[in-house]
Design brief:
Chain lengths: 300, 275
């Protein structure tokens, strides 16, 4: 069996709890990603999703365990892993275009000025911002800033894209529009993406698989849920697919009823489930109203 | 209704006229009495008191000085432009030297908590020392009055720049540093392309404070070392009991100080950014 593109083994993070003891946020996190996969990770606050993402990005260090990408151990940040932060993290003294140019130059230092500019403009066009090249981030709306941030990450063509709840700070309408754009860019580029979200619908729209985390402390990635809906997907029509509802019910049930107690397989890898095939029924069978209110809570 | 600016300008001008009017009246010598002897008339009447010159005399002198600011008629008689030129030259030289030292060290202690802790005690002790207290030591070691004045400017401009640079650098948002890290920028490129622009407004604030202090200190320093410069000029005119010149040069000190501050203010505008 060939090695997966990204292999995460036995990852854990321990903080001092401030009273002389230790607090294990998550432990023995194991998973693998294949090239070209879009995977979302969902879990309640405090389960350490962001820390896992930061470890993958190389911005944070795990207390134990290791991450291997393309046969190389991940140590420290690198250009082969692009990050989109929740708060955009654009450099406010640079224009929209120069924020992208900054990244493209770092990625391909030998490119000529024209080449860098042409490449940067292409990616800004992809997110529909070619009219705002010379504006500063402070002159852009939150949605536009996040588009720039996404364009910056895609422009460097990393092997793995890490999105840390990229739409968390946006209003629902803007979020929908940018989700559509992200779907479009991803269809074009087929990047490998690892994304944190709190939004069940967003996760189903975007991902091939969804990791479900149990609650912290001592959180685990308990399940890996396959989203069996063919690409290309569209926000307007995806709910017509019966697999959408089965997957959604399954996710909501997990988050409401089972996230406190769920455990992975004995070997530590997440349980693989395919709710769309109909084999799996939510263990406790939530009523429709309960599921709906839970979905709202998760979206909020 | 006129705009706020116009109204403010009108008010400013009327304050000035009021002030100058009061000043002029308060400094008039009493009317020469009739029946004075020829000697009394020659001596300016019965008025034996020395007075602050009226604004009309100061303005007349200012006009004469400013219409020929760069004349040089010997060591004790140079135009106001030349004197101010010496002072500005000393301030800028000392200031630039301080910049060359303060910015790199500020970066260092801003980026390294270790260096901050190691150097902070020295900074805290050296900072409150009046710059003029260094003068005797500087004169003894450097053995040159001009260079000693420049050294005093150097030592007084260094602290605000150093501390502001360190503060600005230490408080660059972690997100921006992370952007540099995820793009694999080396330490030097991170410093130049991310940390410097991010900290630039704070650094410029420090530079602006420094140049203000330097301009305050140069007057006192030049009074001590003598020879040239606006500080020396003030003191020299005081020794000549030429109070009109003293008042005129005080105004010029204020005016040039304002120009220096404006220049730094402009520079600050250039590097400012909105988040």
């Amino acid at each position: 069996m060939s090695k997966p593109f990204l292999q995460v083994d036995g990852l854990s993070k321990v903080y001092p709890d401030g009273q002389g003891g230790d607090l294990t946020v998550f432990e023995d996190v194991r998973f693998a990603l294949e090239k070209g996969e879009f995977v979302c990770i969902i879990g309640h606050s405090g389960c350490g999703k962001s820390t896992i993402l930061n470890v993958l990005a190389g911005l944070d260090e795990a207390s134990s365990g290791n991450v291997v990408m393309s046969g190389k151990e991940v140590k420290g940040p690198g250009l082969e892993r692009g990050v989109v932060f929740q708060n955009y993290s654009l450099l406010p003294w640079k224009t929209t275009l120069n924020n992208i140019v900054f990244a493209v130059r770092a990625r391909w230092p030998k490119w000529s000025k024209e080449q860098v500019r042409e490449h940067s403009e292409r990616y800004l066009k992809m997110v529909g911002l070619d009219h705002a090249l010379n504006r500063k981030p402070s002159q852009l709306s939150g949605g536009m800033r996040q588009r720039v941030s996404i364009a910056r990450a895609f422009a460097t063509q990393p092997e793995l894209l890490l999105l840390d709840e990229p739409f968390g700070a946006l209003d629902a309408l803007t979020r929908g529009v940018i989700q559509d754009e992200l779907v479009k860019i991803w269809e074009e580029t087929r990047q490998t993406v690892f994304m944190i979200t709190h939004d069940v619908d967003e996760a189903i729209l975007l991902s091939d698989r969804i990791f479900l985390m149990s609650n912290g402390p001592n959180a685990r990635i308990a399940e890996s849920v396959k989203v069996d809906i063919p690409h290309p997907r569209a926000r307007a029509t995806i709910f017509q697919n019966p697999a959408y509802h089965r997957t959604r019910d399954y996710l909501v049930d997990f988050l409401v009823n089972r996230s406190g107690s769920a455990l992975p397989e004995k070997d530590g890898s997440p349980k693989f489930v395919e709710p769309a095939s109909g084999d799996v029924t939510p263990a406790s069978g939530p009523s429709e109203s309960k599921a709906e209110s839970a979905a709202r809570a998760v979206n909020a | 209704m006129a705009s706020l600016n116009v109204r403010a300008a009108l008010l400013s001008v009327s304050f000035l006229i009021l002030f100058l009017g009061c000043w002029e009246m308060a400094t008039q010598p009493p009317e020469a009495q009739t029946g004075m002897t020829e000697y009394e008339l020659l001596m300016g009447g019965a008025d034996q008191e020395s007075r602050v010159p009226p604004p009309s005399a100061v303005i007349k002198l200012a006009w004469a000085e400013l219409s020929d600011p760069f004349y040089d008629a010997g060591a004790n008689d140079k135009g106001i432009g030349i004197q101010l030129g010496y002072s500005v030259y000393r301030v800028l030289t000392g200031f630039l030297a301080a910049m060359a030292v303060a910015l790199p060290i500020g970066f260092l202690i801003g980026m390294s908590p270790l260096m901050y802790k190691a150097l902070n005690p020295y900074i805290q002790v050296l900072r409150p020392i009046s710059p003029l207290a260094w003068m005797p030591l500087a004169l003894f070691i450097i053995q040159d009055s001009d260079a000693s004045a420049i050294f005093v400017i150097f030592i007084c401009s260094i602290w605000p720049m150093l501390l502001n640079t360190a503060f600005g650098v230490a408080n660059v948002r972690q997100d921006w540093v992370n952007v540099a890290r995820t793009h694999e920028l080396g330490p030097l490129r991170t410093a130049v392309t991310v940390i410097l622009p991010a900290a630039a407004p704070t650094i410029l604030t420090g530079m602006r404070i420094s140049i203000g202090i330097a301009w305050l200190v140069i007057v006192a320093a030049e009074m001590l070392v003598g020879g040239t410069g606006i500080g020396y000029y003030v003191w020299n005119e005081w020794n000549n009991l030429d109070l009109a010149s003293v008042i005129f040069s005080i105004l010029m000190i204020g005016f040039v100080g304002m120009l220096l501050d404006l220049a730094l203010g402009r520079a600050q505008k250039l590097v400012e950014y909105k988040e």
